[in-house]
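Need tokens for this chain, all 133 residues.
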Amino acid sequence: MSDSETLLFANEFFYRAFAGRDMKGLEEIWHYSPGVSCTHPGWNPIIGRIAVLQSFRTILQGASPPDVRCLAPKPVLLGDSAYVLCHEALGGNYLVATNIFVRDGRLWRLHHHHAGPAVNPPETAEFPPISIN
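Here are the structure tokens for all 133 residues:
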């Protein structure tokens, strides 16, 4: 499996864990660094693994947890770090997201997630992976 494929698999794992309300999966995909961070739409930045995971727990245990799907992911490799640009489908609306990963042995682990409103829906064209080494 190529680095791009492994990265996209990790990204998909994150979204499946979120969609499945799987806190164990979310705990597994996030890096163990205390400096991990997340910015949910409309929220202030959250810094620290414990706080980030608590934010997801709060969202998933809420009265109506969102049903989010990842669309048009575009991987960008930067050696031992990488990011995926994508859109998130949220009902009839779209968000644009950046998911930053770091290599942890043979795995990619999420280090930062940021999502915010998108002006347009995602393009349907596939993007080729980009590798910058």
